[in-house]
Structures are given as C-alpha cells and as structure tokens.
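Cross-posting from the chemistry board since nobody answered there.

I work mostly on the small-molecule side, so proteins are not my area. We synthesized magnesium ion and want a rough idea of how it might sit in this target. Sequence and SMILES are below. Is it possible to get a predicted 3D structure of the two together?
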Amino acid sequence: MNELPNPDELDLCLLADRYPLRKRLQGLQRLMADQPAVAEGLARFRESFERSRAIVELRRATLPQPEFPPDLPISQKWQEIAGLIATNQVIVLCGETGSGKSTQLPKICLTLGRGIFGRIGHTQPRRIAARTLANRIAQELGCQPGTAVGYKVRFHDQVRPETHIKLLTDGMLLAEVQQDRFLNEYDTLIIDEAHERSLNIDFLLGYLKGLLRKRPDLKLIVTSATIDTERFGPGLHKLNETVEYSPNRMTPLRRLGQPFEVAHAVLFLCSDESSYITGHTLAVTGGR
Ligand SMILES: Nc1ncnc2c1ncn2[C@@H]1O[C@H](COP(=O)(O)OP(=O)(O)OP(=O)(O)O)[C@@H](O)[C@H]1O
Ligand SMILES: [Mg+2]
C-alpha cells in the first residue's frame, strides 16, 4: 500500500500531473533511502531512553529508608537539616568531630529523594576514608557495600548503576570535572572536611561556585569539623552578617536571601575575600 509507484507508471497519468508527481516521487525516494538510518536511530534512541528510565526506576525502588542513631547531634536535627537542604541550594554545615556529619548527611539527602535522578557524591580528602565511610554508611543502611552505597578512588571503582551514594576523593571529583564539566552524574554533592582546605577542595569550591548557576537543581553541602570562630568569626563580621551562635543547639549563622548570593557562605571557608555563594550556614554542637 505504501509502496511508491515505478517512475515509468507516471506515464499513466495526465501530462499536466506527470512533472510535479515525478518531483514528489524523487523527494519521497530520497526520504525512503534514509529510512533505515532513521529507524536505526530511533531504535537506538529508544534503547538509551529505556535503559535510563530503568535505572531511575531501579534507584527509586531500592532507595534506602534511613534511620538515624539517636545519640548523634546531627541525627537529632535531621529533619531541620533536611528542611534546610530542601529550601537552599548550598548548605554549610559546621559540626564537631563525631557529630555525625559524614555518616548522617548522605542519609538525610536520601530522605529527600535525592540520589535517584543523580547520585549523591560525597568527597573525602583521603582514599581510605572514602572506603571506610562507604562501608560504614552501607552498614547503617543495611545494604551490601557496592549497591546503594559505593566508592570510587584511584584503582577501585565500586559504583553500580543503581548506586545512590558515591564516596570519592575530592581529587577524583576534580578529575571527573574534566570528563563532565556539568557533573551531571550528581544531583547532590557533599564536600566533606572543607576545613582541611586542600588545594583540591579549594579548586572544587571555586569550580562549583560557577557550576551552581548552571545547575540550579544541584545541591551543595559543605562540611567543616569546627566552627572556628577565630577564623570564621571575623570573616563573617567583615561581611556585615550577624553571627548567632548558642551552644547546644543548631543555629543558623546567617540566612542568605537569593540563590547565587551563595558564595558568602562557602567562600568564607576558603577565602578571606567575600564572594557570593548562597544558602544557609548552620552549626551543630556536640559530638564525641
Ligand atoms: N567506620 C566506622 N565504624 C564505627 N563507627 C563509626 C565509623 N565511622 C563513624 N563512626 C561513628 O559514627 C559517629 C559519627 O561519625 P561521623 O564520621 O559521621 O562524624 P563526623 O561529624 O563526620 O566527624 P569528623 O568531623 O571527625 O569527620 C561517630 O560516633 C563515629 O565514631
Ligand atoms: Mg567526617
């Protein structure tokens, strides 16, 4: 039915129609000639589309339901922290050593449904920490290492398509920027131990500052072990911000209004100069 007539068959038509019909026939023949390529392209497109959807469904179906150990300061505030993450693009979280930043933050992100369309990337300065933390978080979530929680460090890639939380060194994340400058693998990034101020972390924060504008869906959480009032306090005052800090409760140090005025919060960690990363800075006191 859809087969085109042989050009010779046009001789059966009116003279007046033969020329325009011949032209249309030639056009249709060109389209037909391309059809295998179009069909192949469509099939390949559908395959990629279905593969991508299947991973989303798998991650959605296997999204862990975290529980929070009640004795950790971060756990006690998890709902409040979740609310801040939900409503800000950037969070700077200061908490004392052992308060639960590294182990609980990625779990808090899971409760917001993050880790499905993109992973939660969680950086550590050192490979050993990335590995042990991945195992620890997997254990707390009751899953096998390398499933919902995986790690990627030099020479070891234990990340699967279904992995929600990916631990990696900050150096590795920096290397990944060269492959994917939008870091589209991730919907959330936790830059842990920012107080260490390594060259990698400084580079990353500088890069992420620019990326946040292009990726409004990306959440950035920066953690620091201490609120070093000596170091941060003067910086905050210099920025003409009110510092509220009361022991034993989480206190917003400041709430910055507009997204992308972000740099205030993050850059006080890595520079004395004020620049503009937005979000919310908070401190959790207590720890082990
Ligand atoms: N691999 C592990 N095995 C056993 N307990 C662990 C492990 N990792 C963390 N913990 C415990 O979990 C609690 C929270 O630790 P976590 O690493 O989340 O704190 P943190 O705020 O990130 O501390 P830091 O600033 O030192 O990195 C601590 O009591 C710690 O001892
Ligand atoms: Mg930690």
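Reply from a structural biologist on the board:
Welcome over. Reading the output above for you: The chain has nine helices and nine strands. The longest strand covers residues 90-95. Happy to explain the token format if needed.
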